[in-house]
Amino acid sequence: MSSTVNLGAAAVARPRRAGLARRLLRNPSVVIGGLVVLLLVAGAALAPLVAVAPDAVDATAAGQGPSAAHPFGTDPLGRDLFSRILHGARVSLFAGLIAVALSALIGIPVGAVAAYAQSRLVRGGILRVVDALQAFPFLILALAAAAVLGPGTVNAAVAIGIAFVPHFVRIARAQVLSQLGMEYVEAARVLRLPSGRIVIRHILPNAVSPLLVQASLACGVAIVTEAGLSFLGLGTQPPTPSWGAELRAAQGYLLTDINYAFWPGLAISLAVLGFNLLGDGLRDVFDPRRRSA
Amino acid sequence: MSVVDSRAAGGPRSAQGDGGPVLRVRDLRVGFTGNGAEVVAADGLDFEVRPGETLGIVGESGSGKSATVAAVMGLLPGTASVRAGEISLLGEDLLRVSPRRLRQLRGNDVAMVFQDPMTSLDPVMTIGDQIGEAITAHQHDLSKARVRERAAELLSLVGVSSPERRLDQYPHEFSGGMRQRVVIAMAIANDPRLLIADEPTTALDVTVQAQVLEALRAARDATGAATILITHDLGVVAEMADRLVVMYAGRIVEHGPVREVLRDPRHPYTRGLLDGLPRLDRRVARLRPIPGQPPDLAAIPGACAFHERCALSQDRARCREERPALRVTATGRESACHFAEEVAGAGAEPDEPRTAGTPGPVVLEVRDLVKRFPDRRSGRGEVSAVDGVSFALRAGETLGVVGESGCGKSTVGRAIVRLLEPSGGRIVFHGTDLTAANRRALRAAARGLQLVFQDPFASLNPRMTVRQVLAEPLRVHRLVTGDRIAARVTELMDLVRLNPEHADRYPHEFSGGQRQRVAVARALAMEPSVLVLDEPVSALDVSIQAQVLNMLDRVQRELGLAYVFISHDLSVVRHLCDRIAVMYLGRIVELADNGELYERPAHPYTQALLSAVPVPDPDQARRRDRIILRGAPPSPADPPSGCRFRTRCWRAEQRCADETPPLVPHGTVAHPVACHFADGGAPAFVPTDDVAEKGNL
User: Fold this and answer.
1) Where is the segment annotated Disordered (chain B) (predicted)?
2) Are residues B135 and B81 in the same domain?
3) Shortest CB distance from B62 goes to which of A8, A17, A19?
């Protein structure tokens, strides 16, 4: 109603949007988290080149601390820990990616339907199922799914993905609902555009930022959960190197060889920290309320 | 000394005895730092206000008026600061005194009224406690009973009825206008020397605005404070201010007594503002808007900031090369124009009268439209937002729908385009009853009914380019196909006077006026025969408003469209509409041709509405008899029986409560009016104490 916008509000909005990359780079959480994630990805990608044989046993150098030949030392069987951690990153990232992709692929469309469906039965039905799933603690749900699917990296990732679906449904639904009240969505309805098109072309692109944040945070949780499942023997199976399985193996040596448990533990912590920082940072950058501050 | 005491003592006290200025601003420069660039929001401002005097500051968005008061109040955001100059309050320079003294000065002697009263009030404290707090903040020794008494006095001073009872209520129990009056009461609780009101009535309806301006006037007269009134509304300054400062691009471009500035402006920008303003008192063929857009503050060169939009400059070298200083002209006015003496007087170019087009066949008929919503507040029952609205619309015609917020005008618009499902009644479009049609038929028919929203910032998808926005409906409905889409997009952009080269830009790269053009072009892509315009220019600045109105006018003539123009702005409706429906609480109370309605309004509500609109002509503003309605419209959840306006009407009798007046012509009144007393011409205005009062300004 007012024809006076607060001083310069309109003028300032312009460079802000254009400078998304700059704003991202100015946020320390995004930068540090991004670097950690980048390091993980690089390590995983380069593992076959720089750490050739994670399974090679060097009996003469069993249970050693860090040295020039073995930067992280060796495990009690004489395998190079550096190689095993690097290869473990491949498993962890793979599991995180599969889990997030799966839950987003199922959760976002279901969430959109839960917001947009004409039928009250459909909307209510989806929400009740989600409620039921969320009544179980996340880890219990993942455990149950993993137990049903059987052990293995892919199965663990799928189990985590399933456990994440309710989160994505909720966030996607909330986002779509908030966009539904926007005038540009009403404008699309007056143009008699088909509902599917309104959701896919108009609503989802504008709802993507919070989903991206959620995906990043979920990736961290997925990594730690995969490690947990592997630790319990429900995830990646030896001899494939995985951080969780390493920790499980190191458990027996905790009192005698702390070096063995230290490196997989550090890797898990770093990975989770990286994804969480990135997710938090993205949230700050995308949040319009924080933007003005 | 209390406000009421001082009034009883026979008039405003004098500040400092000598009548010197309360506030004196010298060479003020306010800068913002944004993205590394320095933006000068205010540059070289000089002004002062004396006790009992009201200084109006007008300007559009980005003119620097808000930054100026923020600097005075010390409320500049962190990215901005006063770069140079002097702000003296009662002789002390605010920029040089200690922080402690600064707090004292601002706390004791300055009071502020903001645009949004809800954010100035604490939702969990009673009104009485809040006013009491303002009183005791500087008068610690008052007894509880005395504080309460003062609070009640203050409330009645600003026109709140039964103040004793009101003291124990919370802000949510007050309407918007009442809250703003409470804020004014709090502002004057300590007899401030300086009262600053920043767009105090911008968020309010016109009849409520009249009440609040009345309260502000009472507050000023009681305290004798120097008042600064910041607004974009020239009508409001004409009524309230003594002197006027016109700001443009961070500078004062004109300064003088309000009457002289508005009657005979000495700066081409002021002249342009007045020429571009739709007027309540006359109707012209075309508005003469200022072309272009306000300059980017970061990029003001060493030239007159206005020269690119100026009708007077004619690209003279001096305007391009030399920044004009504010100087005193021959007529004793201050103007920042090299050629101030050449500014044309009013009526230099005669306005051609507006010719009405010949209306075509009826394209849209709305019969007994009803829309009820479930009552969210109580959780049960229903609110009837629209209750039996009927009208017909002809091709090439513009029907205005006016009324205050909550009268149901937007609901009517949304029901027509079927954003809302009507609860009852019929909508017949080109002979097809849309309310009875099946989905397919509805989809096909409803294409010809389009809507343009109020806020062009919200109604465009931020992630689509203009080309995508315009091409989408063309593709989806196969209106044109293949290669011809690009040509049609260009055609649509030309139609609304957007540069087709900008087709690949995103909405945020456009100004508000341009975005609204995109929204209109998008609606036109559907080849509609009826366009519902829901407050299409309310979010735009005055000079941009006129451009968009002229564009709408031209498009209508070129395409033979019918418009339903929904607005709260009676001046804009006066300019654009052929016929006007006045709505009150879900019903049409009067439906008449433009000239008939504005010259001989028959319904008391229409009369009150028209008399409440501020006119940017001080002589007229002060001469007119004003009808100031009491209170705010009742809740549509529980409307009064019979005539819904009767609770605020000065003519109401028992019959009005018993019988609903039909919307029909009455005797000498040839157009439909829903009033029992419409017969025999316009009912005379008889003020009564309870319902309405007549103010002679």
Assistant:
1) 1-20
2) yes
3) A8
The pLDDT, as a whole number, for residue B353 is 64
Does residue B250 lie within any of the structural domains? no
Asked if residue B508 is part of any domain, the answer here is yes
Mean pLDDT of B414-442: 87
Q: Tell me the pTM.
A: 0.81
Question: Are B533 and B517 in a shared domain?
Answer: no
Going from the C-alpha of A111 to that of each of A167, A282, B450, B463, the distances in angstroms are 9, 22, 30, 21
pLDDT for res A120: 82
By residue count, chain A amounts to 293
Tokens (6 digits) for B690: 């309870």
Same domain, B338 and B392: no
Instruction: Look up tokens 């039965």; give the residue.
Output: A121
Q: How far apart are CA B581 and CA B588, in angstroms?
A: 6
Asked if B640 contacts B647 with a C-beta cutoff of 8 angstroms, the reply is: yes
B271: its two tokens: 């002249």
pLDDT exceeds 80 at position A146 = yes
Residue B433 sits in a domain whose CATH number is 3.40.50.300
Contacts of B307 by beta carbon, 8 Å cutoff, 6+ apart: B313, B315, B319, B320
Query: What are the helix and strand counts (H, E) for chain B?
Result: 24, 26
Cβ burial, residue B581 (10 Å; 0-12/13-18/19+)? buried
Q: Which regions of B360-502 does DSSP assign to beta strands (E)?
A: 362-374, 382-394, 398-402, 424-429, 432-433, 449-452
| B62 interfacial to chain A (CB closer than 8 Å) | yes
Set of chain A residues whose Cβ sits within 8 Å of the Cβ of B462: 184, 206
What's the ipTM?
0.79
Structural domains of chain B, count? 4
For chain B, say whether A293 makes contact (Cβ under 8 Å). Answer: no
> Same structural domain for residues B170 and B311?
no
Number of Cβ within a 10 Å radius of residue B260: 17
Strand-pairing partners, residue B111, are B195
Cis peptide before B636 (omega within 30 of 0): no
Distance of alpha carbon B334 from alpha carbon B245, whole angstroms: 9
Extract the runs of DSSP E, i.e. beta strands, from B62-200.
Answer: 80-89, 92-93, 110-113, 194-198
pLDDT in tens, B639-677: 899 999 998 888 888 888 898 999 988 878 889 999 988
* Among candidates B32, B202, B417 on the partner chain, residue whose Cβ is nearest the Cβ of A1: B202
Contact B506, B467 (CB under 8 A): no
Q: Across chain A, how many H-helices and E-strands are there?
A: 13, 0
Query: Edge-to-edge strands of the sheet including B226-231?
Result: B110-113, B194-198, B226-231, B54-58, B243-248, B251-257, B334-335, B327-328
* Domain enclosing residue B123, as ranges: 3-241
What is the end-to-end Cα distance of chain B in Å, rounded? 28
Taking every pair of C-alpha atoms in chain B, what is the biggest distance, in angstroms?
A: 81
Query: With an 8 Å Cβ cutoff, is A65 touching chain B?
Result: no
Q: How far is A123 from chain B (nearest CA, A)?
A: 20
* B102 and B208 inside one domain: yes
Option in A3, A15, A19 nearest B539 (CB): A3
pLDDT of residue B559: 92
List residues bridging with B89 in a β-sheet: B23, B92
* Residues sharing a CB contact under 8 Å with residue B132, sequence separation 6 or more, in sequence order: B147, B148, B151
- CA B685, B687, B690, B695 dihedral sign is positive
B555 lies in the same domain as B678:
yes
Mean pLDDT, to the nearest integer, of B353-367?
Answer: 81
